[in-house]
Write a structure and sequence with these properties.
By secondary structure, the protein is mainly alpha-helical. It contains four helices and no strands. α1 runs antiparallel to α2 and α2 packs antiparallel against α3. The protein is globular and about 30 Å long. The relative contact order is 0.15.
Length: 71
Amino acid sequence: NKPQDALQSLQRVDQIQEDSGKVPASLHAKTLEKMAEIYEQNKNSDEAATVYKKLLSKYEGKRPLNSARYK
C-alpha cells in the first residue's frame, strides 16, 4: 500500500526531527503537511487534525500555512 509506505517514511522523518532536531525546518513542515494529507485521504480525520495542530504550533509565523489552518 503506497500511501501507508509513504506515511511510514514521513513518520520516520518526523521522529528524527523530534529526536535530534537536525531535519531542516522546511523539510519537516512539508513532511507534516504530507502526513496530514495522507491521513485525510485515508479518512482518518483525528490523526490529520493532530498533525495539522503540530504543524501550526511549530511553524505558524515562519511559513505560509493558511491552507493548513482552515482544514
